[in-house]
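Structure ticket #2291
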Amino acid sequence: ERKDGPVVTDNGNLVFDCAFGEIADPAALSTTLSETPGVVDHGLFVDLADEIHVGTATDVRVVTW
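Resolution: structure written out below.
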């Protein structure tokens, strides 16, 4: 369910959902975000998966690398 206003975790942390387009160096960005004071976590799963499933309203596309 969608809601208006800030999204807050059970621990009281704000959640920011950002779209950056293509990320040239995900590993470097992951490191930078992890080392930034105040950033609790991020959604860059570098070196944790070699396949993703992208769902749309009509199908699912599997991307491997």
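Closing remark: The beta strands are 7-8, 14-15, 51-55, 60-64.
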